[in-house]
Specification:
The complex is a heterodimer of chains A (about 675) and B (about 550).
Chain A (H helix, E strand, L loop, with lengths): L6 E7 L3 E8 L3 E8 L6 H11 L8 E5 L2 H7 L6 E6 L5 H4 L24 E4 L2 E2 L5 E3 L3 H14 L3 E5 L8 H13 L4 E4 H4 L5 H31 L6 E4 L5 E3 H4 L13 H13 L4 E6 L4 E7 L2 E2 L1 E7 L2 E8 L2 E3 L5 E6 L2 E8 L18 H7 L17 H15 L3 H26 L8 E5 L3 H12 L4 E3 L6 H6 L4 E12 L5 H21 L7 E11 L6 E4 L7 H16 L8 E12 L24 E7 L2 E9 L9 E2 L2 E5 L2 E5 L3 E5 L5 E5 L5
Parallel strand pairs in A: 1-4, 4-11, 5-6, 5-9, 9-10, 13-21, 21-22, 28-30
Antiparallel strand pairs in A: 1-2, 2-3, 7-8, 11-12, 13-14, 14-15, 14-18, 16-17, 19-20, 22-33, 23-26, 24-25, 24-26, 27-28, 29-32, 30-31, 32-33
Helix pairs in contact in A: 1-7, 2-7, 4-5, 10-11, 10-12, 11-12, 12-13
Chain B lengths: L6 H25 L3 H4 L4 E7 L4 E4 L11 H11 L9 E4 L2 H4 L5 E10 L2 E11 L27 E5 L2 E2 L1 H9 L4 H29 L1 H24 L4 E9 L9 E10 L2 E5 L15 H15 L15 E4 L19 H13 L17 E7 L6 E7 L29 H7 L2 E8 L15 E7 L3 E6 L20 E5 L7 E3 L1 E7 L4 E5 L14 H10 L4 H6 L6
Parallel strand pairs in B: 10-11
Antiparallel strand pairs in B: 1-2, 1-5, 3-4, 3-6, 4-5, 6-7, 8-9, 9-10, 12-13, 12-16, 14-15, 15-20, 16-19, 17-18, 17-20
Helix pairs in contact in B: 1-6, 1-7, 6-7, 8-9
Classes of the chains: A alpha+beta (about 675), B alpha+beta (about 550).
């Protein structure tokens, strides 16, 4: 065993809180939760670390997820960026794909581009679709751009030339001219972040990378310096959107790969949980104050995507697939033409729900749970925050008056409406993937998730709900078990029957070589590296493709065809044997174990040092319109293995779990809560 | 919790109707065989009760808004509600019933609960080939018989079993029978999902509660639309324009719209428009109804209006039988594009009284470019098809967006240059926004696109470009957007040629053609435009220095 890795720390930096989990071999884990400190998030990180560590040198590994770049992008606070394109195509970035996603909006506008047209420069050069240079690049034109970048105060330049996914030569030449002549500029040629066709999406990805990478770089430099001052000189790892880690020193040139570093945490936690309990199929539901995020673990793997829109702009990068709707504890209820509506508007953290007594007067889902007695006003956040029952009642009474319903009826109605919305969201995620939710367990986390999970599960016919330990620091916990991971892809469009097998093998070989170098530079030994190849394929004529994992070095067209047909049928429920098939992208996913010291999720079960909270007591809560005697107890006091019958409320500092009447709850051997219908326990 | 006809059940049921329709369309999308369905979203999905009142819908294109009821009504009229039973599925594609071209095929399944009919699920999808005279999208048909096999309401599933005789006729008459079967299966699968989910909903709430809540949903929605119409001053509002021609006769096609607002009711009347045409630009009446409904939804003061049976109760749509907007058999209906101009004119007619809601002239044509031929290396046949984007009209809030798909389509993406060049022997020489193409105004119209092509092999070109006679107009002193135009530059040096609609024109290797679509209309007097915006437009190259000076009165 490698002594230097014996103490691992993972930190998840969210918009509101920074969560930390420390795991010491054989001694268990500790948690810390501190307020995040935008714009300099590193202060929150150091604060959290100081709470659990006397000496930073005790740390073997520091892993973290950050939303620094995502926030900079969403708030349009990235660096001033310019773009170089092929002559004749400088408007591609502004034009986009021409589609309107709000179809009845007569006043539709695209999201504001990150680079205005006046900072887009066209350069004479042209490749064809086979990567042959039709027109060599005019280097002088690239040099002439530099003084204009200076005049404009540009800090970062993206480059995206047509067909650079086949032949990046011109992009490379342009980048090296800029890098030599202006070393202070950040340069982001598209082929360094993605090698897939479709010029608008690739341009958008490289512009986004240019826009946020300097922000990430600044953040990581300041963090590393602070850590060094406190004696920590070992590696810092960053969560990537793909659910794997990257050495922080290598992360900043490709900030776009870690954009979802924060939001991906819940899925990473669920993946660890899946391994821990040996359950391959999970629906992961994260309900916080403003949003409800759904992701899936299918057959032990996080459902991923290679493309999505962020803030309305497309990004081509491997990412865990997360679906978000506006439903959370802060969602505001209102009366609309005879209906009781909830959300998507949220009262947010300020003013927050009425019961926070911070000036909010609109009724929210949290207020409804309080009025129903499912939240103890004295027990919220482990008793650290006292809630105002009076304010919650007043807010709900106003709405009840408009609707002609009772206070309790309105409150329970609000909860029913929001539960149905969340169930609909889960249903559409599963329907879109052809999955039956009843074959899955529901993992609930986030501050509000465990309060609603049993009701959502019941609507969907899901039998089992799991509430992981430390549900509030679940993301950080999952990061402790993650490997390094890098993905590379190369567009490779060839009809399957004409497939040049040696060319395919060479393409895969080159991708693997590049990935091997990446992992080696992160200190991974060759024996700890794993490579998984896959091919994106489709029927000829389609734009979209499916992702086909390959069992090793396969290049036989007949076998590839069979694998495609099987995967297509799995995805869409049918196949079309007579239709021609072509390849689209070759992909390699490389993973590397951290220093040969594998930490398995199963080991993460030791005592934690959570606060005690209030003791057990009997109270009253409303279920199905009736006031029921309900047991309130601290999660730490739950006896292992014993089944506790609902109605019951399980409290912990970061979350509250509701066990409705007719359900039971049991602590499993890893400390997770398992909620099922009572019959299931017999 | 126990459920009655209350605000809570109403909201849960309202959400469920829309979620069911969305999930039906998701099933269709992931199981359809044709890219035009799952990529271009050429489909519509809706759920109805037994009175054929729309409960919820999920149109892939906005033009399919509330437009599936006509096919379902035709089924009920022909067969009678009492003879329908569980497991029955019908299909219809007759253009005069559905409003679409014959490729738009409706599948209607019967929803039953406790032995009686409680509703319908309807799915319209664009089929690749229903046996028209020529493959593709011909612009030269003159009667519907050349546009494919046409069928009225027809049973294809009886009590859960295929009516195989009917199926065989459909398959025998298509150039793409496998795809047809795949798409039909996908439509049936989507309908089955609708059936199951509607049944679950009734199981949970009981039929009386579902019906009672449905009534409340319709009433609430109807009230919103009535309140909106009532907020418009009573009056008769008119607008007219001309579609270019039907390709066959070259005569301009008059489109006249009269909108009458009285109290909380609105009538959209196309009387005075052209008689039905010899060429294939005719609309079945339901197409005209869809255009009118979409215009109302566009004007509704929220970007995401509710759409159900209640939405369009206050709206009446009128067209003269035998006119281009209610064509009689055997009029050809392949490109019912005057519907888009009509929609746009409804918005124009109401501009004086709804200045905050309207927009200036929109991209009102699909500007189709088809290049077909044989690959030089293999001899294999290829067809490249595109619908080009145009400039959207400006409004009281700001400039029109540039380079957007026309008003009838929504989430429809253009073809990337890299994809086009990778797949076809075509080179794109440049692809840009047209400087000064957006109608000038206090708020500027969106810019058009200019795409320059060169063909790398001998091939043929089909074009459908309209709206040159009536370009996107400006409002309140704003100027018109630029007119669409296509110029062919033959490689042999013969003089350039201007084109708009053409069927399979032979091209030679090296021929170039430049397609310019329409720019959006401007809104308000250009002299009132914020000079800073004009300067930025000049810096961005969207407006020339000359136009800045002459039209906007802003020096560089």
């Amino acid at each position: 065993m490698n002594e230097s890795h014996s103490c691992r720390v993972a930190i998840d930096i969210g918009g509101t809180f920074t969560d930390l989990v420390l795991y010491r071999e054989g001694k268990g884990q500790r948690l810390a939760k501190v307020p995040s400190t935008p714009p300099d998030y590193s202060r929150g990180v150091l604060d959290a670390l100081s709470r659990v560590l006397d000496d930073f040198r005790d740390m073997g590994i520091l892993i973290h997820g950050t939303t620094a770049q995502l926030n900079a992008f969403l708030e349009r606070k990235g660096v001033k960026t310019a773009l170089l394109t092929t002559r004749g195509f400088g408007d591609v970035y502004a034009m986009g794909r021409g589609s309107r996603d709000r179809m009845y909006d007569l006043h539709y506008r695209n999201p504001e581009p990150l680079v205005p047209r006046r900072r887009i420069f066209e350069i004479d050069e042209r490749m064809d679709a086979k990567g042959r240079a039709l027109l060599p690049i005019d280097r002088e034109q690239v040099r002439e751009v530099i003084p204009r970048l200076r005049e404009e105060g540009v800090a970062s330049v993206a480059i995206c030339f047509l067909h650079s996914y086949v032949n990046p030569l011109h992009e490379r030449l342009a980048a090296s001219i800029l890098e030599e002549a202006a070393p202070d500029l950040f340069v982001s040629p598209s082929h360094r972040v993605c090698r897939e066709w479709r010029e608008f999406e690739r341009t958008s990805t490289s512009v986004l990378n240019a826009y946020v990478s300097p922000i990430l770089d600044r953040y990581l430099k300041s963090l590393r310096e602070e850590l060094r001052e406190r004696g920590y000189r070992k590696k810092v790892y960053l969560m990537q959107s793909n659910g794997g880690l990257i050495d922080a020193e290598m992360a900043s040139p490709r900030g776009v790969l870690t954009l979802m570093s924060g939001p991906v945490g819940g899925s990473v936690g669920s993946l660890a949980l899946s391994a821990q309990i040996g359950e391959g199929n999970l629906i992961c539901a994260d309900m916080g104050g403003t949003s409800f995020d759904v992701s899936l673990v299918v057959r032990g793997k996080a459902a991923a995507t290679s493309e999505r829109k962020l803030g309305g702009l497309p990004v081509l990068a491997p990412m865990v697939d997360i679906h978000t709707i506006g439903a959370g504890g802060g969602s505001v209820a209102f009366h609309d033409a005879g209906s009781l509506r909830v959300g998507p508007r949220s009262a947010g953290a300020v003013p927050g729900p009425a019961c926070y007594d911070r000036g909010g007067s609109e009724p929210t889902v949290t207020d409804a749970n309080l009025v129903l007695g499912r939240i103890d006003p004295e027990g919220f956040l482990g008793g650290r925050m006292r809630l105002s029952r009076e304010r919650a009642e007043a807010a709900i009474d106003r709405l009840a008056g408009e609707l002609g319903l009772s206070r309790e009826g309105t409150a329970e109605g609000m909860v029913s409406v929001v539960n149905a919305q969340m169930a609909n969201a889960i249903r559409s995620v599963t329907v879109a993937k052809g999955i039956d939710p009843r074959a899955f367990a529901l993992v609930a986390f986030g501050g509000a998730g465990p309060m609603h999970a049993a009701f959502i599960a019941s609507e969907l016919g899901i039998e089992r709900v799991l509430v992981p330990r430390a549900a509030g620091a679940f993301s950080a916990w999952g990061m402790l078990t993650t490997d390094l991971r890098h993905d590379l892809s190369q567009t490779f469009v060839v009809p399957l029957e004409d497939l040049p097998r040696s060319h395919l093998e060479r393409t895969f070989g080159e991708l693997e070589k590049e990935l091997e170098n990446l992992l080696a530079s992160e200190g991974v030994a060759p024996g700890d590296m794993r490579f998984v190849r896959s091919l994106d394929m489709r029927y000829r004529g389609q734009e979209y493709f499916i992702h086909v994992p390959l069992p090793g070095a396969v290049s036989d067209p007949t076998l590839l065809r069979r694998l495609f047909d099987e995967q297509y049928e799995k995805t869409y429920g049918h196949k079309n044997l007579a239709e021609e098939v072509e390849t689209v992208n070759a992909r390699v996913e490389a993973s590397g174990r951290l220093g040969g010291n594998e930490l398995r999720a199963e080991e993460l079960v030791a005592e934690d040092l959570d606060a005690e909270g209030r003791g057990s007591r009997t109270g009253r809560a409303i279920f199905d319109g009736k006031l029921r005697e309900t047991l309130f107890l601290s999660r730490k006091r739950l006896p292992p293995a014993e089944v506790l019958a609902g109605p019951a409320i399980v409290e912990e500092p970061s979350a509250t779990t509701v066990v409705p009447p007719g359900y039971g709850v049991q602590v499993d051997s890893f400390g997770n809560l398992r909620i099922e219908r009572r019959e299931a326990f017999r | 919790m126990s459920a009655g006809i209350d605000p809570i059940s109403t909201e849960v049921i309202r959400n469920a109707f829309n979620a069911i329709a969305e999930d039906m369309s998701s099933v269709l999308g992931r199981s359809a065989f044709s890219p035009v369905i799952y990529e271009s979203h050429d489909y519509g999905v809706a759920l109805f009760n037994e009175r054929v009142e729309t409960l919820g819908q999920a149109p892939g294109h906005p033009f399919f808004i509330g437009g599936l009821d006509s096919g379902v009504k035709a089924v009920v009229e022909k067969y009678g509600l009492s003879s329908l039973s569980e497991g029955d599925v019908f299909t219809v594609n007759d253009s005069y019933i559905t409003g679409g071209h014959l490729n738009d095929v409706d599948v209607v399944s019967v929803l039953t609960w406790g032995g009686s009919v409680v509703g319908f699920a309807a799915i319209r999808a664009h089929w690749l080939d229903v046996g028209m005279a020529e493959p593709g999208f011909p612009v030269n048909t003159t009667e519907i018989f050349q546009e494919g096999v046409r069928w009225g309401p027809t049973k294809i599933f009886s009590g859960g079993e295929w009516v195989s005789d009917v199926l065989e006729i459909l398959l025998l008459n298509s150039r793409a029978p496998r795809t047809l079967m795949g798409d039909l299966n996908a439509q049936v699968a989507a309908a089955r999902m609708g059936e199951r989910r509607y049944r679950d909903l009734i199981d949970r709430f009981g039929l009386d509660v579902v019906r009672g809540c449905t009534q409340r949903i319709f009433e609430a929605t109807e009230k919103k639309y009535r309140d909106f119409i009532a907020s418009i001053p009573d009056g008769i509002y008119e607008a007219e324009g001309y579609a270019d021609d039907d390709f066959v006769t070259k005569d301009p096609i008059r489109v006249k719209v009269t909108v009458t607002v009285r109290g909380d009711e609105m009538v959209i009347d196309t009387t005075g428009s052209a008689k039905q045409c010899k060429g294939n630009v005719n609309c079945g009446f339901p197409n005209t109804v869809s255009a009118a409904r979409l215009a109302l939804a566009f004007l509704f003061p929220s970007g995401e209006p509710e759409v159900n049976h209640g939405s369009f109760l206050p709206l009446k749509v009128v067209a003269e039988p035998g006119s281009v907007f209610a064509a009689n058999a055997p009029a050809a209906c392949m490109h019912p594009h005057p519907g888009m101009l009509m929609l746009d004119l409804v918005i124009k007619a109401l501009a004086p009284v709804l200045p905050e809601n309207v927009a200036a002239g929109l991209p009102g044509d699909s500007w189709n470019v088809f290049v077909m031929g044989q690959r030089p290396e293999t001899g294999a046949f290829f067809v490249s098809g595109e619908a080009l984007d145009g400039g959207w009209g400006a409004c009281a809030k700001g400039d029109g967006e540039s380079a957007l798909i026309h008003s009838a389509a929504g989430d429809f993406r253009n073809v990337p240059v890299e994809t086009l060049e990778g797949r076809f022997p075509i080179r794109v020489k440049s692809f840009r926004l047209g400087r000064d193409s957006g109608g000038p105004g206090r708020f500027r119209g969106g810019l058009n696109v200019i795409k320059e092509y060169e063909v790398e092999t001998d091939c043929r070109l089909t074009l459908h470009f309209d709206r040159a006679l009536t370009p996107s107009w400006g409002l309140f002193g704003g100027g018109d957007g630029s007119r669409p135009k296509v110029t062919l530059y033959p490689a042999d040096g013969s003089p350039p040629r201007e084109l708009l609609k053409i069927e399979q024109l032979p091209l030679s290797k090296g021929d170039r053609f430049v397609c310019e679509t329409g720019g959006g209309g401007g809104y308000g007097n250009p002299r009132e435009r914020d000079p800073e915006r004009v300067k930025l437009d000049v810096l961005d190259g969207y407006v020339s220095q000359e136009a800045a000076r002459k039209v906007y009165g802003v020096g560089a």
